[in-house]
Each structure stands twice: as structure tokens, then as C-alpha cells.
Amino acid sequence: MKKITHTLIFACLLLLQGCESFDFAGFFGVTGPAVDERFAASVKLLEKEPVPDITVSSDEYRMILVTDIHSDGKDDKPDRFVSACLAEEGVEKTVICLGDMVNGRDCHSGVFSKLQPVSQAPWRFLNALGNHDTYFKEFDTFKEYWPLTTYTFNVNLPSGRKDFFICLDSADGACGVLQRQWVENILKEASGKYRNIYVLTHTNFFNTDNTQLTSGNFSLEETYDLMSLFSTYGVKCVLTGHDHHFEKCVFRGVTYYTFNALCLDPGSYYKLTFGEEFQQQECSL
Amino acid sequence: MMNSSAFKRITASFCILFLGTTVFAGQNREAVQDSYGITVLGVYDYSKTFAHQGGVDIAGHMPFHTYIEADAGFEFLGPKILAGTLVARPKLPLKVGELFLDTAVHLRAFNSFEAGTFALAASLGYRMDYVSVQMGIQRTVLHNFRKAPGDGGSDIVEPVNPIFRIAFNVRPCTSPWNISFGAGNFTLYKYERFYYPIFFLGGHVDITSHLTLQAEVDLQFSGIFNMTAHFNELTARAGLTYNF
After folding, report:
1. Chain B residues within 8 A of A216 when measuring between CB atoms
2. What is the ipTM of this complex?
3. Regarding the domain delimited by B4-243, which CATH topology (the fold level of the hierarchy) does it fall under?
């Protein structure tokens, strides 16, 4: 009995301390700024300095997407990804990352430094915040490199039209009240003015297979709420990661993608084609 | 708003199902030992999605036989949410406690979203005086009530969502008053995903041989056990059960 008690106490202490990958203390309470707080800070920054427009040379353009790198800053996955990006032809020099860059404590500086060749001019690196990016209060380090968690940007097309991108913070598995109101206002304003509207966020929306047992989502109520917003205001696609497994679902005219993770073996990144229609091409590493 | 005819059809179907099962239960009440009951509860709900809402829950408990009972629950929350669940429960009394199998059909319709959850659930449970545990799976359909040309495959099917519930009583479960607490990702009015446990604290007291006063508070957190936990929803219920 004594042994069992000691084991249980040890297990509880371990849970509270967390391990190298998961911040167990955060599973039961807030360990850093919550989504509303992060949103307020991000929007303040965005008002001062909006994300610059991207101008492309064709109405059908390609960008690179990666998600769930889960690097400890020492593995070679980020290096191999950078090499692959630099070797790509016919793509805009733009990488969209849908979060979870790291897998543990004190990893952001290592990963961001490895990604430098595709995160500095002439490349652009557009990041969404993932749950692992917030564990162990790591958001403080994350924001030194990428301070925006909620933002928008335009892609200017040669035809004079524009595509509109909205990046949302779903690292806590919730959109939050303030961000939810903000995105509704943004969508109201944007609806009908753009060729296509895309939403980028970390957390996937559905559990259509058994892979999601270890990855939380939005509550059902919030899932419906966001889906309703996206369909009402004509969002074309919602691009997510988090689950590590590819999934494509259509609900009321909006296509929801969940992309494979780079951390898997083989890992994946994607070449996305944004035209009248959206297409994705998986590349293995 | 939800297609009004669809919403009316759902409301009518629930009413018919609920009344039907209650009437059926009433006709068979002599055949069982446990008592039939109808519960009416006032509900207050605060969620990050809908803010403040009020509503009514109506539930029926129907112990048809020693080996089978049923529950029906119906929730009307503000003008926005309509939910209902029918549970058929084969059970096997043991020397200590009782084994049971919950088989449930659940619908939670969101009027303002013109969509809702349709779930089929099965869970095996074991109930003792002080503890009850239950585990199983639900097949969830995120259903679009407003299908239109060009919507594509509009219903999303989540074939395997685990469900669980664990409840503790401070007194034996047959006591005239009791306090219960625990957690699970479903109630008679709501079936959630695996990572959205509903923590509950409730109690009841028998006022007379026919009337029971009961109250419960449910709490839900987003991101709990997997991401970062934040308060998401609080539901408080209070009302009376009439035991036949």
C-alpha cells in the first residue's frame, strides 16, 4: 500500500512538473497568457504595423505550407525542410507555418535560427501559434521571433483582385470571446470584396478518424459557431494542423483541411496552389 | 436562423418521443420496483459562445423492469439550443452493485447555426453505492440542417468519440438526500468530445415521498487534459422530481 501511495505521489508530482514534451500543469490550468490576452496584444501590434501585402506575379500562385515541426532545435528536420524550400521552383518565397514548431522547453531559438534562410528576406514566414508553442511559458520566447498570433494579410493579384488571409490563435483549443468578435467584424468587412478568403489556424475542427484521440479540438458549440461564421461570410478554405494526419472535410461550402505533420517519418510539407480553386500537393521529407 | 420547418419538425419529434415514452412508462409502472419519475428543472447557462442563457429541462425516468430502464431528457435553452436524449438501459443487478449498458440517441440542435449534433452512444457502466463508472463510444454526426446546392458533403461524421463518466456519492445512492460529484463528457442533455469533460457537483433531497428537490452545477473547460485549460461554460440546474 505504501509503495502504491508513493508511486501515486511521484506520478502526481511528475504530472505537475511536466515532462519534456507536454506541459501537464497547463492541462489543468492557465500557465501563461490566455487566448484573449494574446489576442489583445497581437491586435495592438497589428494596428501599429500591419503585415505587408504580398504581391504575386500570377493569379494562380503557389506557397509552401508546413505544420507541426515539433523540433527540439537539435534535430535535422528543420534543416531538411529549409533545403527543400530553397530548392523549390515556381513557388512564392513564402512559408505558412500552422504552429507547433517546438517540442519541449527552450527550443524556439534553436528552431527559429535553423529556419532563418526561409524566414528572412527575400522569404516571408507567416506563423500560427500552436499549443506546443505555449507550453512551459514558451510563448514569451515565441513572441520574440513572431509577436503576432492573430493577424490578416492580403495577396495582390496581377488582375487587380486580392486574396485575403486571416490567421487565428487556437493554441488553447478555443477561439476566445474577443478574437471571435474580431473575426466576425473582419469577415463582415471582407465578404464579397476578395477573390477568396482563407483562414489559417492551428487546431483542427473535426475527429473523422481515430488519429485524433490524443489531440483536443474546439468544443462542439464553438465548432458550430466558427463554421457558421465561415460559411456565412464566404470563407473558401480553413487550413489547420495539430492532428498530424491529413483530412479534408466540406461543411456548408467551406473546405476544412488538416495537414500532415513535418515531425512524422517521413514528414510532410505542402505546396499549395491558390487560384480560382485551391489545391494542395504533399511533399515528403 | 434555422429553417423554421426543420426546427418545428425536430421540436415536434422530440415532444412526441418524450410524451410517448412517458405515457408508455406510466402504463407499465406496476411491473417494476423502482419508481417512475418526471423531473422539471430551471436552467441557467453561461458559455463563451452564447453568453447568458436560460431554459428548461424536462426528464423522465422509466424503470420498466428489473433488467431494463429508460431515461428521456429534453432541454430548451433560450431560443438557440434544443437538445434531447433517449436512453435505453439494460441492467444486471449483482451481489455488489449493478452492471448496466447505456444505449443512447441524442440530438442537440443549434437554431442560430442551422446545424446540430446527432449522436448514437453505447457505454458500459458499473454502479455501486458510492461510485459509478461508465465508458463507451459515441458516433457523432455534425449535421447541417440547411443543405443547399454546392454545399458538398455537408454532414461531418465522427465515427468514434470515446465517452466516459465517473460519479461519486457522499452517501449510498438510495439515501433520501445525497451529494454527488464527478466528471464525464456527456449528460442527459449534452454529448461532448472526449477532451471536453463536464465536471459536475449536484445534490438531491426527498421533500416528501413523491417530491425530490435537486440541483446541479456543471463546469466545462476548453483545452483541458490536452492543450491549456480555460473556463468555457457553466450550467446550473435546479428543480423538482415527481416520483409516481
Report:
1. 193-196, 223-227
2. 0.85
3. Lipocalin (2.40.128)
